[in-house]
Amino acid sequence: MTLEKFDNSEYIQVSELLNVSSKTFFDEIVRSILGDIQRQTNRKMHASQLKSGLTYKKKISGRSSKNAEVIIKILECVPSKIYSASFTSEIDITTVTYEIEEKEENKICVTYTETFKLLSGKKLRSQSKLHKMYLHKKSEKKSRKLLKHIEEYILMNQNKE
């Protein structure tokens, strides 16, 4: 895990070796994004339409009402290589990136990076340094679990075919 803090922002980065192909992993991310877009906008899109600059709005449960609606913007989308998007609310911007590196047939290294930045003049409730460290450790664990869950889902569905 890499944990950095700079200019009122923080990021977490984890890398995992997964036993799936880069194409299959990327296709699963795209399938999930297309489903999210359809649920949020009632628009059906094709994978070829996921390009840098595409935006849509989403309500995220579990956030305060001021922070519940986010604008999702695709920053980068290169098949089997990288997917990056920003989530902008009234108080923060979170950027997530999946970088995929082919290692060998059906084996990849995925580096997941999540950057959180408070917008100028915005503040979160005060947190102790220990509490922040706990939250970062929890975020690292959640990120690793997410990557492993995607791998398990792909493998489970491959076995059904």
TrEMBL record:
InterPro entries: DUF3284. This is DUF3284 domain-containing protein. It comes from Amedibacillus dolichus DSM 3991.
